[in-house]
């Protein structure tokens, strides 16, 4: 393994200008660093390759220092994922309290999704050149704060929807920004560590957001949402005062930024950029170089089937189940005599949907945390598998809702079946998310593009940022399909004499 070195420490600092202007509190004294070329696990069981070209090679430190550095990196990205996504969950959880009873609740979901999708397209596909991470993160936190204040302080529907749109746009832009930020860390084991904890944080946001609103909703919309509006300020505080700089993971004797991985690793593909235009073959390291629209299109082509389509399908099936099918999975309240345990959990028909959502959020959090827990990523060839499994679950749950798999007097079996299927749905969704982003983070650039460090950096940022468009499209399409799906399933239930959905 070898590293592509910059010509001077000054150029390396220039390449990371947006990140190296932050506080130096996370810098490590080189006298306290220990060589990692032995491949020993640092904090949290990250295995790093054994190579003379490893960026920490030749530097000594204590294991405690190594663990502290990786712990701060993992905690930072966990907080990024948690706080960036938690407002989205709070808005959905508070939907019943934010709009009048006569207003369709689907409008909240639409305003909570579509602006984020616009941010994904605009900032990944349209803007060009270097990413100003400091400006983005500060801007995202301010937009979220303003949006949540608009929701809290104004009772008019238009003002609240506008505030939700601002918060959604900020969350979408933040998602792109933080996954792109992970690509600035080298070697790829460090970038993968960042993505693993980012994914875990996004999974935790579902549980934390739902629990937080459950505790705050008694205070009313103005106070509850007002308190939530301060959460976005955790993002810049984490960025400036907790997140280690990328330079902390580099060997100062070489200032290596990109490290080539062993060419015989079958699970880390090389991007097919053989048809790149002359711009990408240029050896210039000028910071003014940027990817053109044609360059981005060529980068996208090999990703469409391998990464983007599986992620799109997973989110399409997942959110169609959660928003269109799960609300119709209703059964009579279990009697204490026959179903002692279930009767303690479910006290009314309205308890079923929150139960399915709780099961889903728990399993999503666990599965999105697999990389950070040290569980190996699934092979690239198996990335479509979660989508296939979710499609089977969607079909099964649709049949259960419309016609019923078990007879009417066996609701216990139906509830158990749905519990299992929703758990598998959450596992598949979380695994698809964390593994797709992890794999794209680990891709090594084609040797042609690797010759230009600035363009190689921008290509990595663009590729991982562009993935957000696929899951955003899946969620948006699912939100449009969910409403007619719920209505039709309710009609089919009523046709066979099951009237529970009509009473909600």
Strand order of the largest sheet: 1-2
Secondary structure: number of strands: 2
Which structural class fits the helix and strand makeup? mainly alpha
Fraction of residues in helices? 55-70%
Amino-to-carboxy terminus distance: 62 Å
The fraction of residues assigned to DSSP E strands is under 5%
What is the helix/strand order?
Answer: EHHHHHHHHHHEHHHHHHHH
Using the CA coordinates, give the radius of gyration. Answer: 24 Å
Mean pLDDT: 79
Shape: globular
Low-confidence stretches: 1-61, 254-285
Helical element count? 18
Which labels suit this protein?
single chain, 504 residues, mainly alpha, two-stranded antiparallel sheet, 18 helices, 1% strand, globular, disordered N terminus
Structural summary, described in words:
The protein is mainly alpha-helical and 504 residues long. The chain contains 18 helices and two strands. The radius of gyration is 24 Å and the shape is globular. The N and C termini lie far apart (62 Å). A two-stranded antiparallel sheet has the order 1-2. Mean pLDDT is 79; it is low at 1-61 and 254-285.
